[in-house]
Amino acid sequence: MNIINQSDIIKALQKNSRFDSLLHQCDTFLGIGEGVSEVLEYFSKECEGNEFFSIGANCETPSILSLSSSFETTSLVDKQVDTILCNPPLNEYEAYCKRILEECIAKRVVLILPMEWKESAEIRAFAKAYKFESELIGAVGYIQDNKRAKAEIILFFRSYFSERTALEHQLNREYELGDLFKELDHYRFSLIGEERKRKSEEIAKECEGMQNEAILEYLLQRYEKEREDFFANFKHLSKISSLFLSTIKVENGKLKIE
């Protein structure tokens, strides 16, 4: 497999302040392909508080959880991670890049791509369609056909605004009801990391200075309220209007209760 040397990628990322900030901002990372196995292992040891997953990478570190041995047969639409890393085969980089941008719900994708990626109208179109912006965060050299060549480390990212726009873009298609709720669920999970952090900080602030018994009582009350809110929201599903359904192009004839 013709891939860029992983030791060079690690060195480039080590001295990159943008990638260092990602390691501290994000909780979960997914590495795709054999081209990032060493990269995952290195940074999983450097950042023990983060969670690392892999697809199609033979990682020996027990803390890196393998989700699948094959990227070709594994969908990304349900992979709830903050950041994706991929060093695709040089002869397949365009196919890898387009599929990751199309399927993933991650906010950030770090791809190692040969310089000519910028000439790919298809990659630019996919990035635009799925609301990704791009930023050069590093570069590595490699040898191809006995000649020196250069690859770029590109960060594709979605701002919060872009995430909402991406959802609106997806809803502009005609949906079976099951597909609609799948899309909405994927979007919900894309924000769950931020919500988890916000709640943790809120609970820590509320419990500051409390005795153990008071903390337990507070958590029980909070749980009961969130449980009530959940069931209240669930009941609202029965009130979805035909106007809303027609707006998102779900036809009445396609609705059925099983």
Please outline the helices and strands:
Elements: H1 6-14, H2 17-25, E1 28-32, H3 37-46, E2 51-55, E3 64-68, E4 83-86, H4 93-103, E5 108-114, H5 121-129, E6 133-144, E7 147-157, H6 160-171, H7 177-190, H8 192-207, H9 212-236, H10 242-247
Parallel strand pairs: 1-2, 1-4, 2-3, 4-5
Antiparallel strand pairs: 5-7, 6-7
Helix pairs in contact: 1-3, 4-5, 6-7
Explain what the structure shows:
With 258 residues, the chain is of the alpha/beta class. Helices cover 47% and strands 19% of the residues. It has ten helices and seven strands. Helix 1 packs parallel to helix 3 (37-46) and helix 6 packs antiparallel against helix 7.
| End-to-end separation | 47 Å
- Broad shape: elongated
Number of discrete helical segments: 10
Helix-strand category: alpha/beta
Query: What is the total tally of β strands?
Result: 7
Average pLDDT score:
78
Rounded radius of gyration (Å): 21 Å
Instruction: Tell me roughly what share of residues is in helical segments.
Output: 40-55%
- Kindly report the spatial arrangement of strands forming the biggest sheet: 3-2-1-4-5-7-6
Instruction: Please give the largest β-sheet.
Output: 7 strands, mixed
**SSE series:** HHEHEEEHEHEEHHHHH
Which spans have pLDDT < 50 for at least 5 consecutive residues?
Answer: none
Name the beta content range. 15-25%
